[in-house]
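Need the bound structure for 2'-O-acetyl adenosine-5-diphosphoribose, inputs here:
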Amino acid sequence: MLGHAGKILARSRFAIAFTGAGISAESGIPTFRGSNGLWRNYRAEELATPEAFRRNPRLVWDFYRWRMRKILEAKPNPAHYSLAELEKMGVLKAVITQNVDDLHREAGTKNLIELHGNIFRVRCTSCPYRENLKESGRVREFVEAEGLPRCPRCGSILRPDVVWFGEALPREALEEAFRLAEKADMVLVVGTSGVVYPAAYIPHIVKERGGKVIEVNVEKSGITPIADVFLRGKAGEILPKLVELVRGLR
Ligand code: OAD
Ligand code: ZN
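Answer from helper R.:
Posting the output first, comments after.
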């Protein structure tokens, strides 16, 4: 199974990866679905919505600050580094992620498409103001502050620059992801339940165009029915092995 996947990857001409929360699970970041996706008796689905933010922005900001703190404590794991390595080897052309945790970038991935935004970016709810807190050096100050963060330009409430349930995905990112999927002759799907659309179209587009789908997951997902190879196990254990195989074959 692993050997077959290694061959497909090594022989590919334009490989892409599609990742979800499972790739960051071994970094200690809870996934959305499954047993430990809970926060103070709230489910992410109840807090990550525009309605929740309108009703109780303080609660939503408490939740996002909590997630930011958890993510700040986390480091990329061997799965993130493996994808960065495959890119350096010239095998992988892009990583399309549903994650907002920035760990692919921390691991060194250069061509990264973030379909659901980035938790370290904030934007104003009424003017075009945007800020990347890592770049402005304000992350610490921001996560430790209490109360509602305000726009330095107009004074309105800031919001996380992430996609909430019921919101559209950032257009440029989505178009770029679709373009890449149409070009790809294989996609490596890692740690996603593959049930949230439009993101989950990515592997389907590759498949429909005759490309191969290799999946790495601890359990079956919405993508498994179209997977040419399903590698069951932890991403942090399987991906480094895949890199070694590909290195031997290239
Ligand atoms: P989910 O929480 O739905 O799924 C995580 C997947 O990772 C599951 O299929 C697990 O089996 C798998 N998994 C867990 N640990 C793993 C490991 N160590 N190695 C490999 N696989 C592992 O997360 P996503 O599919 O990313 O959207 O969720 C998609 C979107 O739904 C998220 O981006 C978010 C969420 O609501 C928005 O916030 C818009
Ligand atoms: Zn503003």
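Comments: The mean pLDDT is 95. The pocket of zinc ion (ligand 2) is lined by residues 124, 126-127, 129, 151, 153-154, 156 (CB under 6 Å).
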